[in-house]
Fold these 3 entries.
Entry 1:
Amino acid sequence: MSLVKQLGAATFAVLILLLLGSAYLMSNSSKTMLLNQLESHGQDAATHLGLYLAPSIAANDVAGIETTVNAIFDSGFYQRIDISDSSGKILFSKTTPPLIDENVPSWFVDLIEITPPQMTRDVSHQWNKIGSVHVQSRAGYAYSKLWQGIQNTLIWFGILAAVSAIAISGLLFYILRPLKGVEEQAEALSEKRFIEQSRIPGTRELKRVVNAMNQMVKQVRLMFDEQSRHIEELRRTAYQDSLTGLPNQRAAEAQLAERLDYRQDFGNGTLLYLRITDLANLNKDLGMEKASNFIKVVGSKLEKLSQASEQSILGRLTGADFILLVHRLDDDSLKRTVSQLCADIQANFEALSGSAVIEKHWPVHIGVSHSNDMTGSNQLLTEARLALSDAEEDDQSYAIYGSDAKALQDSNTWHQHVADSVSQAQIFLQTLPLMGTGTSHSNTVPEQQELLARILDQHGTPCTAGEFLSVIKELGLMVMLDRAVIQRALEHASQNPKCGKLAINLSAEAVRDQDFIAWFKALVSDHDYKQHLHVEISESAILNNLDDVRVFRELLKENAMEFGVDNFGIHPAGFAYLYNLQPDYIKIDGSLIRKIDQQAEDRFFVSSLISIAHSLSIKAYAEHIERETQLNELNQLQIDGTQGWLHGKPEALEN
């Protein structure tokens, strides 16, 4: 029960006690007053009768006595009248039952006993006592008057109690309203949201409580902000280039290896390998400050270009070398993109150099290579460096390695096959197990199974995600693929209630699609096995669609479905979104895990990510576990679960 209701109930109880006390006192005082009235009334009647009946009593005239007594008794105010002689002999007696008004309830009569006093008056005649008169008034009058008084008291109490209840409730709500804000602050704080009350109450005690709560919120927020800044500083030191802010060589090559060598889900891509021409002489000719500014310009141009692609890998490998991997560009798009990039860099170079004489035709050269799902990161970098050497030797702005024929399945037939497979839901699912803390690769009970969508090529051979995902995105079929995967997963859960938790990777396109959201809400609202599904969204997709993801997260909460952040820890925007989004778990990106058993910086950074997740009551999982040494290191860092080929390679969901 709320404090307002408790105070209201206590106030009402006090009013009831006051009513009972008032009714008791009133009934007692009224009863005493009425008894006094009945006593006076009986005494007056006895005196009057004694004076009037003296001659009749002296003459022993019973008929006259009866006539007189009956005339008085018929008024209805008397219960008993006795007339006796000097010896005490009853000459005439008149009685009637103690009639009580029918409006007076019997319980009231039983509760309050009123016995009217019997008054006596001696009768004298010619200075001699000749008898006495005994008169007892009727109690019905007293009961009627007392009951009427009690009724009026109850009616007025009901009216005043209703008015008082409304007034007191409003007053208590106004006075205690700051406590509601304190309650909201406490709930928000448990969810790692920080709310301060701007309205400070005037009541001294409440003012102290609100100020103390606001101060605690400030301190907790400061603590989390300091923790986030510490981790961000660690990220910048270990994984970012200090001059341009781009990922450094270590981070860029790790992300390339993660996407191309391990996950193989990038699909057909285009790598730009850019080198600033003769950086040493450039520093000498322009000066360190202008040369540094030029390096920043090159980095910003590449960063802007990377933002045009939803998935990209960008980094500065050395002082003069940059790489940018984007989804596959056709010949026309590649020519326009690279030409525009070189022209922009040339213009900035000329603006910086001013009147300085620099005998270089191109301030940068670019080598271009293409990748498919079978291309490894080292091969792609080697091919790009060979193309860069050709561009430098010929003094061309850029050169392309190989021909366009190297693109896998890059034909209208393949596009049509992929479109038909997705539109007809001709997909099958594989699972990759995620094992809880302390489990080994020999344990066969996963905490979660991540679902991997696959299709068959024209020859009936299963394709990796990289072979068809880029085509699906190009054709705008990602939402359709997500629908097919969700339906297939729910069907499997319905047919296999003991299948455990199934994790689905949802695309950014689906989160932005209102029709998909409506479809998903209708599908899971009454589904018996919806709790089997965990929904994951990559960190990049979340940060690019934060408002849409927040709405979708609330939908998952309403349906008791868990939500996770995939590929966590590599986006430069930081972790502030975790406070508001409050996912159930994160999956630390495999590029941070691959060498965790070899590099102390990776261990420290991953340890910080786990710590910040646990401080927000979020589980932390790790991807790309291939060695026992990795698993041992992560268990020491108190990871909640691990996923990778150490625990088993993907298998068909039906198995």
Note: Residues 3-58 form the longest helix (56 residues).
Entry 2:
Amino acid sequence: MANPHIPVEFNKDDDELKCHPSQSGSTATPTLFENPNNSKAFCAQFFEDQLHQDDDEFDELNQQLNQVLLNDSFKPSLAQAFTADMSSYLSHEKLTKNSRKMQQEYQNATLREKEFVFNTYIKNDIENFSLDKYKHYILEKIIEVGPPSHKNLILDRIYNQIHKLIKDLYACKVMQKGLEVMILNPQDSLEQLENYLAFIHQDTVQMKKIYVDKIANQIIQKSLELLEGNNLLKLLQILSKYILSNNNEKFELSTDQYGCLIVNKIIDIYPKQFDAQTKSICNNIIVRAIENCSCLTRRQYANYIIQQILEKGQEVHKRLLMDQYLIKDFISMALDKYGSNVAEKTIIYAGPQWRLKLWEEEVSISESSFKKLVNDQFANYPVQRLFEYLEQQQRNEFIALLNKLHGNNQLNNHGQIVMKFAQANYSVKRYTHKIVQSELNKNNKEKSNNNKGQKNLKQPQNQQSAPQQMQQQQQSLYQQQMQQMMLQQHSQLKQFDQQQYQAAVMQQMLIQQQQFLTQMPQLYNQDMHYMPYPIMTQEQQMMMLRWIQQQQQLCNANIKFQNGQQK
């Protein structure tokens, strides 16, 4: 029998290898088929595995896109703001614009967007954000309006490295913002507030370096301003040991360039304290400064403490400082480079009685003392200020002494400057007084003439008809409205500076066509007596001139109404 036909097996290894290019003598490039271990690389199972793997990757990618919306065309505006270029090579204007856009978008963003941005861009880079000139603002914004969890995480990271970050300008601002928010809402950040209070109440060498550091002492000033009760008391007790007190460590804040700012802050917060112990500590610090004022006024930075007491201190402290110490030490203080600034401030904030006592007992007591003050390179400034605030009688004595020294050729360059200033100031106020008196006399005459005219017009006015009476009522109502408008303008007037004042005085001297009322307001009442116009300060004289101008406008309005009525 013939052998049955046996079909050739297509996948038989031997036949398959015979078809390879290397077996058939072909010049084609060898492929993976020449490796016997990869003979089944393109089997059906391999293609199925590849398809399943592609499907899994596609499903995972779709899931990520649905959760985060990372597609650029659908990215939230807050995320777009944070992806903006904030590198250092950009201009200041562009960096500032990007930073403000971040803050604005964060404040208006939804909670979901805030979570995404915080976890993506900020959470792992808080320290660098706090040190950046522009990005630290976004941390302040998160602390102010962000979720409590984000705020507390930032505060934890910042205060854990507070010794490292507190001396940086931008990180210190973030700490101050955090302190403000914690004091405002302590229930949201109890743990963070306790950590900060534990830090601020330390009495270590590192804290002393913070007190006198240019940047870090700002957080101490902020703490004095915001803390209350027992927390403020503990801080003041620590600081009091290093302010004009005998301490074994020879560490003094009042004479330091930045430590004196802490003392000034204590003087500033004293009136706001209600706790007896806290107020007592602040008072003791201020009294110690007053008792040591002779030394402090001559120090480069400590003299600002005495100036702070004169400007913002309580009246009791001011009087104690001026009556007991500064008036006796005025001449030597005025001759000093830094003390002359304190002497000038003393004259400004003292009353007329104190200036008179100073003039009679210290300045004009002898010709030699007056000559020494006038010719000194530092003392001539407080002497000029003293002449500006003296009364007319003392001004005349001042001018007489200057003329005597000038006649004897005893005035140097500084003395000549004082003489020119005194003559100019004296002349301006004298001419102003003359103008005011002459205009008042004119006003009195015009008022008397108007009274006579009104008496003569009484009889025909009584015989007026009803339409004429209606017209008079309308005119009176219109006059009242004009007066109200003038009063409103008076409330809106701003203070003039010295140059504007001098220009107004010169204009008054040239144009003598103004009309005034008979009585002037008592604008300044000090020591229970009226101060005459020629010895008022420049500010008081300007108040008088503004009042006179408004009275003139009222008079002009009345004259117009009277002329219209007569016609």
Note: The mean pLDDT is 76.
Entry 3:
Amino acid sequence: MWKLRGLVVLALLVSVLAAPQPVVGRSGKRKGSRRGRSSGGHVPKRLNHPPNPPPITGSSPRVSNESCVVKDRLWEPREKAYLRNSCTSKYKDYPPVGLLLWRPEKSGQMAILQKAFPGAEFIAAWDGPSSGANYKEWRSKLSGPNDFLIYSKRTFTEVEAFERLVKIAAADHVIYLNKDFEITSSSVSWLKSSYEKLKLAKGGAFFSAEGSEPFAAADGAEELYGPYIIARHAIYTKGGVGEHRWCFSQCGIAQGLLFATHSAGLKAYREGSKYAVEDKTGSCISGVTRICDSSPECSQGHGGKEVKMTLIVQFFRRDHMVQQLVTRLKKFDAEILINNDGDTAHNSFMRWADERFHIVHAPNIHEIRGYTRLGQYARGKYLVMLQDDDKPKDVVWLSDMFKVFNSFPGLGMIGGHRGRLDVGRSFDKSTGQVTGEKYGTPSRKGHKFKDITLKDPKTNLKMMFMYKVNAAPLVLKRDVFLELGGFNKNLSCPGDPGIGFDFEYSIRLWYNNYQVGLMYSNFMRSHSKAAGTRANSKIWNMRRRTEIRNNQYFYTMFSGFHAGVGTQKAIAANKKYLK
């Protein structure tokens, strides 16, 4: 009898140790010591429905959609908001309406728009000759929590300006105004009335009209003019407005927008008409479906060159580093986007930057939202996520990563810093996750990280498939990034550290049957206790609490998949594909 009881106890003990998930009580809180609870170590209560659909499975990994087939986009990751319900920031992830301004000239007129559209986000862009617009003057007028100012020495066509502004917006509806739109009380009153009509119609787009024709043009979209009012949420999720496999490079704004609206199964309306607009001649549709957003026609950047990659840098008030940062980035033949999260150093950036740079002044939204919005704005096939203190020694690491992407079409992301395989059997209270094997860049503090010992047999380059990788650098396929809804805004409030966004996106890629890899980038790190989330003990402790909370939240988000099933997919890929 005692032997039997001993065997039963032993079996139970083994089963508990084998389970990768933390033990939770009925309340949803993890059982443990007072220290574990005080450090934020508990699993959030399970949602009232599965937070994500069942994982996509199959015998082979999914690959990017390289065809020109219209493909739906997620507005955001599918799980319900948990943390954001308690955020106190005035920044809104999805404001009701956005005002998109190309080359605005009179800052004093903004008050008319702000009064007519309270709570709106304002996104203004100055390019080429207009990039010398007075930054301080405009920031004093557009100082809301959702207001973005964009500067680039590169001259846009109006089609490109329109497309980029619509992409970076976050509002459900957007109104595009170029420099020729005269902002007066009467014209803005018309804008507001038209915006309200479009909301009621639940349509796709609204055009103003010039000329005597009272109804929709029957011979194409030549008689349709701006300003344009767009139900962005509806068109975006159906793959339209330049977000899918198509761009406006061969069409005017009106023609392209009309096609995007119709391809999304929505209607377009025009001023003075209750009827939907039709393009009976197909003047823009002919051949347009063969154009992809990764093709040269749609991804041209500086000097008319095709943009293979876009570097996106998270910058926060390291003003003394602007010159050396810009100098390092100029080594890359790439489009370069700076998320200037602290709204500083504008003159320094404009002094040292060339036409490849786009300086986006964001109002302290931090990396999750900054990376996501600039990832939508970008034109490169690959997104390279960097931090402002990253110091790459050369550009070879990036060309090596592209070779590996070509070897494995199912790769959605490659990390260039560190990664983990969650193979542990015990739960680490200090990090909110199971213990595991860590690989990648050695630490100066003496933490042990295993070497990357496997190779891709096609390129003979060192790499491993990893369950989770750390930022930065992170190199992502933009196509996949948009398909999956970008980074998860539910992991932090606006302005707070987004610790764990890299792990969550890694898990989500495996969950959707994409792959994640790890390679060496040989960066020179310049972390210091006086910078970023290491600035003082208060910020550091908040960082640690966020890390523990998010790591434990993943068990709820990806219930039944994280971490055991997901880790085994990475291990299996290493055995199958690498030597």
Note: The longest strand covers residues 121-127.
